[in-house]
Request: fold
Amino acid sequence: MDLSSAMTIAAAGMRAQSARLRVTAENLANAESTATAAGGDPFRRKTVSFAERADRDSGLELVDVARYGEDGSDFELRYQPGHPAADAAGYVKYPNVSPLIELVDMREAQRSYEANLNPMQLARSMIGRTLDLLR
Reply:
């Protein structure tokens, strides 16, 4: 494997983890949001799925975002009869987002991003050293 292939693979991994971080940040930002109308549905937790993709130009197997989805689990119900988004029974639906799960997912995505960044930096360093030798 040459250095450009290593950089291509690492860049694909970094793009995938960056998408995962964006989705997690959006989930955290909306963790306590409610519906705008009484009895309506609040924000639904978003998910991201990865898939392996064959790059025909380079002949490499790369990771890519397969699809963005939504978590179909139930919303959390809280009894708050005075809330503007409360239904007729006085319950307010809150998003199906658990901040603890999102923080763990964010940390895992960050570590995966860093794991892809290290080979990228190493390949750049090796290319720089090779150019220095050729001078």
About this structure: The longest strand covers residues 60-70. Helices lie at 3-29, 99-134. The beta strands are 46-55, 60-70, 76-79, 91-94. The chain has two helices and four strands.
